[in-house]
Amino acid sequence: MPVLGLDPTKDQLLSKLREFCTSPQRRPDDYVAVHFAGHGEVREATGEHVLLTAETNPADLASALRTEELARVLTDETPLRRILLMLDTCDSGSGGAQAAARAVTTDPSWKDAGRERGFVVLSSTQPYQLAEPGAFTRAFTEAVHSVATAGTLPDRLPLEAVVDVMYGRQDPETSTQQVVLDAVRLTGRLPAFLPNPRFSGTSTGIDAMLQLWAEQRTLREEEFRRELLTMHQEPFEPPTSCWKVKSFRRWSREG
Question: What gap in Å lies between CA 230 and CA 252, rounded to an integer?
Fold first, then answer.
């Protein structure tokens, strides 16, 4: 969608966004990405995450833009079915969850959407974390352009692979923020929002390596759930659907 420029007001942001989403040019197979970078905060009185636009009085957050309003504008009575909302604010993990929850209550026309659909929120921080200016943009850009995300064969990048790389490059000892991915209204995998900047249409050794790595990771996850997890669990008494771990061992991949 078009860039709104610096410091839009609440009304400018909502009206321009709504105008774009309801345009006769919009189609259900469009990929729509909205990126909001600015100030965000959680209201202590209500727990609502709000966005501080140009006219917001920090002492009166009751009048600020509720983050979930972006979901309403994007989904209510619009033809859009593939929506990516990126929030780069403090406490954005809270706002992302609230926006996703609001998107669940969309109008009934979503039932007619095809397989590749979904409302996805990528937040720059976990709830109650502060956002370092520029950190999310740098990490996202590096992940998109990294061969660890995908080689040259796929024309689109899986968003979950991008997030995986972003997490992998964070130092748990020094990192002050971690991204969060929320998704609702899915009918399968996440929509393929991101074009692959390395796409050439021909397979390389990197593609083969990444494919093998993905297959092995899937096998390890299945083995863990099927073998190791059940081996080290015991049921609660009286019986419930929950389990508690009875032992823990350090496993290595040596050999």
Answer: 19
